[in-house]
Design brief:
The structure holds 3 protein chains of 3 kinds.
Chain A lengths: L2 E5 L2 E8 L14 H5 L3 E3 L8 E3 L1 E2 L11 E2 L5 H5 L4 H5 L12 E7 L1 E4 L4 E2 L16 E3 H8 L20 E8 L16 H15 L4 E6 L9 H9 L4 E5 L2 E6 L6 E7 L3 E7 L1 E6 L1 E2 L4 H8 L24 E3 L9 H19 L25 E6 L11 H9 L4 E7 L5 H14 L3 E6 L2 H14 L7 E5 L1 H5 L6 H19 L8 E4 L3 E5 L3 H12 L3 E5 L21 H14 L3 E4 L2 E9 L2 E8 L2 E7 L1 E4 L4 E2 L13 E3 H10 L2 H4 L3 E8 L13 H15 L4 E6 L8 H10 L3 E4 L7 E7 L2 E10 L4 E7 L1 E6 L1 E2 L4 H8 L26 E3 L9 H19 L3 E4 L4 E3 L9 H5 L5 E6 L2 E6 L9 H5 L5 E3 L4 H12 L3
Parallel strand pairs in A: 8-19, 10-17, 11-12, 11-17, 12-13, 20-21, 20-22, 22-23, 25-26, 25-31, 26-27, 31-42, 33-40, 34-35, 34-40, 35-36
Antiparallel strand pairs in A: 1-2, 2-7, 3-4, 5-6, 9-18, 14-15, 15-16, 24-43, 28-29, 29-30, 32-41, 37-38, 38-39, 44-47, 45-46
Helix pairs in contact in A: 4-5, 5-6, 8-21, 9-13, 10-11, 13-24, 14-15, 14-21, 16-18, 18-19
Chain B lengths: L12 E5 L2 E4 L3 H12 L4 E4 L14 E2 L4 E2 L2
Parallel strand pairs in B: 2-3
Antiparallel strand pairs in B: 4-5
Chain C lengths: L7 H9 L5 E5 L11 H18 L7 E5 L5 H18 L10 H25 L7 H8 L2 H26 L4 H8 L3 H13 L3 E4 L4 E4 L15
Parallel strand pairs in C: 1-2
Antiparallel strand pairs in C: 3-4
Helix pairs in contact in C: 1-4, 2-5, 4-6, 7-8
Classes of the chains: A alpha/beta, B alpha+beta, C mainly alpha.
Chain lengths: ~950, ~70, ~230
Amino acid sequence: MDKVEGKAGEFNVTLIKKPRYIEEEKCTGCGACVEFCPILIQDQYNQNLSLNKAIHVYFSQAIPLVTYIDPEHCLFLRDRKCTICTGVCNKNAIDLFQKPERLEIEVGSIILAPGFEIFDPKLRNDYGYGKIQNVVTSLDYERILCSTGPYEGELRRLSDGKHPHKIAWIQCVGSRQSIPGGNSYCSSVCCAYTQKQVIVTKDHDAKAECTIFHNDVRSFGKDFERFYQRTENLPGVRFIRSYVTLGKEIPGTKNVTLRYATNEDGVKEEEFDLVVLSVGLTPPDEVKDLAEKFNIELTSQGFCKTNSVNAIETTRQGIFVSGAFQGPVDIPESIVTASGADALCSQLLAYRRGEMAIKREYPGERDVSKEEPRVGVFVCHCGANIGRVVNVPSVVKYASGLKHVVHAQEALFACATDTAKKIAETIQEKGLNRVVVAACTPRTHEPLFRDTLREGGINPYYFEMANIREHCSWVHAREKEIATRKAKDIVRMSVARAARLKPLQELNLPVDKRALVVGGGVAGMTSALSLAHQGFEVFLIEKRSELGGMARKLYSTLEGLDVQAYVNDLIRNAFQHPSVHVMTDATITTASGYVGNFATTIKTGEMIKEVRHGIAVIATGAEEYKPTEYLYGQDERVLTQIELGERIAKGEERVTHSQSVVMIQCVGCRNEERNYCSRVCCGHSIKNALKLKEINSGMDIYLLYRDMRTYGFAEDYYREAANKNVKFIRYEAEDKPRVEMVEEGGERRLKVTVTDFVLGAKLEIDADLLVLSAAVVPPATNTELSRLFKVSLNPDGFFQEAHVKLRPVDFAAEGVFLCGMAHYPKNLSEAISEAYGASGRAVTILSRDSVTASGAVSEVHEKDCVSCGICLSVCTCGAIEFHDTPQGKKAWVNPVLCEGDGLCTAKCPTGAIQLKHFTDDDLIAQIDAAVRED
Amino acid sequence: MGQFAEQFDKGSVDSHAGDVMVVGGGISGVQASLDLASSGFKVYLVDKAPAIGGKMAQLDKTFPTNDCSI
Amino acid sequence: MCTGRIDPGFILRAFANGTDGVYIGGCWPGECHYPTEGNYHALSMVLLTQKMLKHIGVHPGRLMVEWVSAAEGIRFAEVMNDVVKRVKELGPIGRAEGIDENRLKLKLEAIRNLLPYIKLVEQERLGGHFHSEEEIKKFYGSEEMDRLFRELIVDPLVMSEIMMLLREKPLTVGEISAGLGLGSSEASRYLNRSSRQGWVRFDQRQKRFVSVRSQGVGTRSVERRG
């Protein structure tokens, strides 16, 4: 990156493309040069735990899969000494004289997603890291666990290559520290990734003893609480709440001792085979340089300074930020803000949408329907994932002997761009008319390979995937021989089916360019306005009589935003925007249709109206739990945090004149009934505690908590509260605080009793106010909505996204999206990011003229149809109807409405209705091949 | 950096035009690029590393589905 | 494709091929990815097929259905290990039950031939569509179901088996009752009914029953091309 000139809409960026000393178009990634290169260097991808060559491919699934030369180590580039690689490359792809190129690129907007670095414990020599071999960082450990890592997936330690058995994790390394060299914030992701590493470790070695030293387990993400319980309940796993110091490295064994303290046993020193430092996230390298070139501001911590409500906006117009450059965030948030940044760019550049986009061209489709099947089989190693267990060459040899197979070969990574290209070429060269790829799951990779078939000039439905990874190598890792036999069985079944596949045509259906947003809270309004700014018409419906949702009850955020002013602005904008049609007091009565073409009926008062739309966004928010515990509703001094916030804002005297305030966390959640953490309450109570301290710094505030979960930058406010003498007292789920009404001298006192673990004694507090941090609960109406839009709810009643990590604002049902607290409890700025994210994802559909419907739908062979009507009665998609033919009425399938489930086919008594691509013939062939060889 | 790698290929400055530039090819940058391209914009994705993927490409599996991260 | 797509014919085919166990993995009730809720249909189909397997002497536990969502990798592994354990305990199909291979094939084929009829019966007489797992299990465990099964399925099934036996060669009542494990009076009753339907007749010359038409009780085989 050289320089950035211009302004939003017309930036001019100068880049310097570093030479890789390889001509990318010529390199095939064959690796011959790597083999012959004499220079060994440390492999950065493997955290320097293994060696690589000066010329190498960055990692085995890298895109692009071509080599590059590390100029710092290459003998030629340093001293013009060696040219072995140029000699062995038979494609002449190596150009040691390549020069950096200067590129000038004009763009309308910029998204900064430089990511993060991990905290480097070497800098302060934390826990002996860098000196003691068996102290590693969590990212080092991640590489050690990985099949492409230094030990090819075997769990070994550095000092002697032995399998470590007793492993300790130390949390918060570099995070939650106010000492020099540390970061004051919480890195947000370490508690969860540590738990994942523990589970994976136990998978490797069921007897491993895993100890996690922590200071609060912060499982604040969706489903994280259950994940925490799963980890905690594994045998041999201990979570210990204690600070830890390094003892010593034991000479000889090179084991490491750690000193820690518990309430029960006092200080102890314990020996471990391996110590993993759960290191936090830091801003990316060279962040100052980046900020200068883009002329954006940074926070004091070195992250990108963002708008306090819209965390995707930088301080410079037209430049947006996504991912961990905003601050420490997990993968789903990185995806959400990426889609959100897309939406904000799209708002800015809506006027030029589609002008520069390039349409993909495919070669013409060869008609092979008259040919005998000519099947090509490609067996993937998936790096070591399959190859380490299944004998791939043996499977290839076996496949080549199967009936109809005319070509079989292996591939290191069948999904790599260059391999896919080669498969397409092989289809043409060998005249293949069916392709079987034996690799991983069709769920993620079938679209990719279907595309490869189109590139090869044959119908994409001539493709069949044999899953020899999830169904074979991953589950039979220790039984190599029978795993190989099973892989052959799976391949034989796939070939049998492939030979019978028929070409299918996909349907192009027009897209209705309008959107429906369900829920008029901050998330719903933000998403509706973003869609409108991107050039689309929106129906925004709210079941209550006013817009604003939960935010109407909030007065400020931890960061000091005036929420009421913000919400009122948003409401005004929603009503004023000509493309946003607001409907209040509205309920949905029916919903039908599919991506691109939904029809929803909405009832407002006595009026019923049908709305047609191409996508829907579910933003129905959440509610505060009404506690039944701790005398709530029985004594007016017992409030929820939201009620306290309202009363502080109104300056109510009972609140401002209180001398002693007790707050209890986790009321109504993290229990059997609601097995999740409500995420926002810790921040919420800190905010209210600080407000109260502002009013009266002498007020006694006791905050009774289980784990303080002030993740990210909220940690700073937690520290501030502690510094202002808010008293934090931890309680255990089994020993909850007790609240009683005590009558004394005509006075009714509110007495709170709690066990203080630090003092090891019962503490009694007289409270003027008792504030309950009540759970965030999903609205009861979610159930009905989930049925209407055919989207699912998680066990807690929140909406379930398509993929927790990679598709956080999509539903599995195409064309329906979600944002805000409908997904899970979250704070205002997170909900806003999600709202932009959902609108960004939605526009990927709305901006298209048509959507493609699968060709795998049912069809009727009329001469076999006996007009019994069973198919009509079971098809709740309404895709089947009778139509008149010269032979009487026969069933007919509307391919647009058919969802391809195939229930009709199983129910048809005569086999007249067949689900294409999954016909009786196809499946029977596969069933027969399971036991019979051709 | 090697001494011979420093000089520029002088005289050849390539000019390009697009809608959006995404800086960083990690999971967030890749997602932003894909969404933009699907919404009808031409995107330049730039990364300092020789391959895209960022930190997530280094992860073994991701919680809680334990999907591979690539 | 949905579990609702699974045709009982596939299961019978697998057993006829010598497979010892068939497991169907479906989405949790109420979580079908399709509006058709095919998993409820799959459960009904499994319960009915199990009844038919039991009727022909095959252990119904060889056919299993369990719900596993895409997010439940661990549960899936547990279920699969359990399936393998159960199938191993049951032993090889036919042999463990004491049915010889040819007889087993014939019995499975008899059901297969009857499938068109069974599908009509299932739709029209056996409850149609259900809305919960409990509802389905309750119905299939009820006395009402047992009665319907006897009347609507067992009788035609026995007749279908008789037809298949007679298609091989003419047989006496005694041979048929031995072949199907029926009492001789029961066998006579079925033969009388079949001859009233015009499917079999008693050949005075051979003193045996013979098949009249090649067609069985059902109209047509589902996998006529399979």
